[in-house]
Amino acid sequence: MFSGSQEFSPLPSSPSSSRDSSSSSSSSSSSSSSLPAAPRRSPRALQRHGSLLAQYSALLESYTEGEIRQLISALVERYRQAMNSGGHELPLFPRAGSRRKRARARHKPCELRELEVSVSELGLGYESDETVLFRYCSGTCEAAVRSYDLSLKSMRSRRKIRKEKIRARPCCRPLAYDDDVSFLDAYNRYYTVNELSAKECGCV
After folding, report:
1. Which domains does the chain show, CATH number per domain?
2. Alpha carbon distance, N-terminus to C-terminus of the chain
3. If I label 201, which of 2, 63, 77, 118 is the partner at 20 to 30 A Cα–Cα?
């Protein structure tokens, strides 16, 4: 038991301890400043690029020397054709999506379509600003190939038929035509054109 109140004060820090603490703090700061910086991670784009290169190199290693030469010659020939056709460089490896779109475009069925054009745009020699609804046939006829078409194609490949201009596959053409079209030209002259627009389409 203690009588009265006593005040407890912290022990004074000795000079040696303060020097030790200051030296330790300075050494820690100097050591922290002297530590090497953490290595930066390479961008993911470069990582993906490296993985693609590894895949292509592994793919090329599976080819023989003759196959690699054929591949290079085919790529060079395709590049030369692209440059000669339009003067624009085309990608050597088109995307699969574009190939699927082109395939779908090639295999659309034969059907009737329409387009609003001016009479002058019809190419019939009339000068008029009047517009008409031009219906036309568009699509492929692969499903309508008959034995006649197959045999005709075989005769052409065997050079049994050489000089005649023939078509060894059915074509999407009008089976019937719409009503006659009448209009006034730029000189207020009245004209009527028959068999202008398609009414029904089919493979002929």
Report:
1. 111-143+169-203 (2.10.90.10)
2. 122
3. 118
